[in-house]
Structures are given as structure tokens and as C-alpha cells.
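User: For my dataset I need records formatted as: sequence, then C-alpha cells, nothing else. Please produce one.
Assistant:
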Amino acid sequence: VQLQACGGGLAQPGGSLRLSCAASGSIDSIRAMNWYRQAPGKQRELVAHIITRGGRTNYADSVKGRFTISRDNAKNLVYLEMNSLKPEDTAVYYCNAVTYVNNYWGQGTLVTVSS
């Protein structure tokens, strides 16, 4: 499985960004997709999670009500819609794919929230 993330950039506090993650390769083996983030000097943390089949989602408490993870199975894309952004959302965001036997990571995309 290969993952390609994009959509990061600079946003003002209160603004919005949408991240995309394109998956290729053994798509049918993917059971769940996640977005993680890692801020400078901090550990990588799980932000949002979606089950590939069924679409059940889960979010970190810090982003609930502001971020939405979704998927387009036909296009092999996973999105992270980020609204009401805060400076503390500044981080490198990574998409992650989970299969029964492995864990795959895309390259990070930097999100900076600043006025």
C-alpha cells in the first residue's frame, strides 16, 4: 500500500483546510485509515480514524466537532476536513492505512495555523 497526502498549508485561526490522502496498491487489504499528527517536540497522536467498510469514525477529543474524516472508496481517497482551526493544530499530519498484517504511512503534510 502506498499513501500520498496533500493539502497542508497556512491557515488563520478559525480557518479551514482539507487534507487528502490517496491510496494505491493493495487497496482491498486496507481495514482502516487514520490521520495522525505530530507537533514540534511532541509525540505523534491519533487525530481521526475511519473504518474502510461501514465508515465508522472516531476522533481525538481535541478535534471533535471541528474535524471530519471521510472516505471515497471509489477514488481510494480519504479526507480530513479541518474547521475552526487553532494554533495548537499546527503539526505535520500523516495518513496511515491499517491492514490485518501491516501498517503503512504516507509522507507528512505540514499544517500551520497562525495569524
